[in-house]
Amino acid sequence: MPAKEAEKLLLQNNFLIDRQKGSHRIYKKGLYRMVIPHHIGEILHPKIIKQLFEIIEVAKD
Asked: Which family is this sequence assigned to (predicted)?
């Protein structure tokens, strides 16, 4: 999954871009935070994708 798709998922689930440092964007929703590295043309590591789905599920409350 590329970073653009991960970003789209976060934004659809009401996460907002908090800030950016270099190629890393930090998204927040309440107390939850997710950092996505935006390296063009690269696919996210499976651990980051797992964290992404877990935090979206937990933040739905």
From this structure: Belongs to the HicA mRNA interferase family.
Query: Helix 3-12 vs helix 46-59: angle between axes, to the nearest 10 degrees?
Result: 10
The tens-digit pLDDT sequence of the chain (61 residues) is 999 999 999 999 999 999 999 999 999 999 999 999 999 889 999 999 999 999 999 998 6
Non-local (6+) Cβ contacts of 54 within 8 A are none
Q: Could you list the residue range(s) of the whole structural domain that residue 29 is in?
A: 3-59
* Domain at 34, CATH number: 3.30.920.30
Q: Count CA atoms closer than 13 A to 21's CA, side-chain side.
A: 3
What is the pTM (predicted TM-score) of this model? 0.88
